[in-house]
Fold this protein.
Amino acid sequence: MKNELESFKEILQLKRYSKQTINSYLSNLKLAQVFFENKSFVSINEKDWFNYVFHLVNTKYIAASTQRQIVGSINLFYKEMYGKSLNLDQLNVSQRENKLPPVLSANEVKAILTHTSNLKHKALLSLLYGSGLRIGELLELRLSDIDSERMTVRVNQGKGKKDRLTILSHNVLKVLRKYFVEYKPKDYLFEGQNGGKYSASSSRNVLKQSMKRAKITKPATLHTLRHSFATHLLENGVGIAHIQKLLGHHNIKTTLIYTHIANDSLMTIKSPLD
């Protein structure tokens, strides 16, 4: 089983899939490996996969987007490793959910950062929000990706295998400089206790604890900080095309979702009761 996954990883690397995509696919397959108790993938049939995804939907309450990614991982694995296609049409989510992404207010973000006392944790959350980064992009950052002269952050091979530049806040830079002095990272911008990249799970726990201390109870994830970054820029008058470039969206339709969240114009409308 391990050899199959390693071979699959090498195929994806040769086809130039991004690190984040490869890690996501492998993570999905490793979780399935545990569920099937190390049963050989080649012996797992469509009915088995249906039962597995059904289990995730009904016990883990996975989102539709997660379900799509899992089914995509399975299909690609069988195509590349065995040269065959599985009939998993019944597992495809027929229609994308038309949900607005959750957003924190500017005051809520400030409260979260205020209640993050650990300097490393404060630097991580500040940069995530202040530059509108995905957590996978932030954890891949090297020291050289921070340009304090041009006040930019370089994102290498982000989603869609694209490089881009995004903004670096002066306030975030101050926090980062203090963090550099105290923690002295050697390679990655944020490193674990034993070196190497800081983990996404640790990052999620940082946000969870800070929100708890700030007494913010609304549902929010690390990606909510990115949504909040885009929404707050729009509310402050930044053009949608500029926001698209900062976020690294291929299609501006993806960015336009924030026009439905920004309250700059909505808040000027009076209720008929007023």
